[in-house]
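User: Run a structure prediction on this.
Assistant: Running it now.
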Amino acid sequence: MSKWPNPRLSRRRVLRVAGLSALLAGCGTGPAGRSTQEIEFWHLLTGGDGERMNQIVTKADADMPQARIKQVVLAWGAPYYTKLAMSAAGGRSPDLGIAHMSRLAGYAPGGLLDPWDLNRLARYGVSQSTFTAPAWKNSIVNGKVYALALDSHAFVIFFNTDLAGKAGLLDSGGKLPPIKSLDEMKRLGTEFKKLTGNQYGLAFGFLGDGAQLWRLFWTFYSQHGATFDLSGDRFVYDAEAFSESVETMRSLVDGQVASTSAEYANASSAFLNGDVGLVLSGVWELPQYQDAKMPLGAMPIPNMFGTGIDAAWGDSHTFVLPHQSNPDEERRELAYEAVSRILKGSLSWGHAGHTPAFQPVVNTPEFKALRPNNDYAATASYLHYDPPASFTGSGSNFMTQFGSSIQNALIGQTSVKDAVAGFAERVNVLMSQAVKR
């Protein structure tokens, strides 16, 4: 998710490097004396994600002597999206940008993004066939493609393979047995609890974190085959699926299998320290677990509702064309080439835990050899993005509102029924405000 800072690639450092690249670009020439063109690329990728993106972009830049790709790294979340919108509204935006797929509905319909030309993309080997169905379907707004997915990142289960092996839980392939019900999930957590002698066997950090609550809920809710309708005057949802999903979350954090009050950092630390055998979290946590030399396995979150529907909350970093009133066609063509080169060189993006979206990369032996990445890579084929609306998506207030309502049910301060009703009213307010704007 690229949310956590890392001193090895600070915003200041990237901007300094980008500035030097710009200076060199202004003084240099391409082959046969041809002047280089500067492609300005805005993104919000820092820490390990930022380092990997810098490596990929540097390689693409080296393969494009007629261009220089200038990276501009902005603060994650609302600050980034506000600046991106303002630049596009003025028609003087960067040549390329990164946006989460879940934010597309708030940008494309209002003319803040320019659509991708499919014929141009095809010349560079990029087409519908090179992406998964969810990534392509969700990139389309009003019949046009506005986003090209770099990856998919899902909510999954990580587990400690050493602890699982000692408990006799692994099959011959080193995987946990299929989990088909909430009782089986709780029994698994109990087995880890017995082995470690600690208070809990499973970790889920959610306290004060609406995004974490939303990710697990949307996984469970989507596994019911349910969705939200945010297109009308009032919020429409499946009340039974909503309640059962929240009840399941509350049953997991019951104070027996998992803590009733774990924060995100606490849950990650408990897993890193071997205090618990399982943790529910996003795939972007993979690098820190691997850096700690953990004996690590992973699997998609199973369907425990008997519906047989594979579903997982997820999102994608995507490439977008922020609106330009008078785009320079030579630079825009170079932007197409740059994106195609980055997509084709995105194998290393898998080391960040993300599953590359470009299928020719996913289908290589090199990616298939990555573990435990390949054990959850299938989630990309059934990823469920946030319900589209101008107020939903990564870093949005929608997730905060969800957490404010639903957390109270998980910690026993209100009933599930009242928590769901409270959230529904909050969404109705967001919908009415969106209509007024």
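The radius of gyration is 22 Å.
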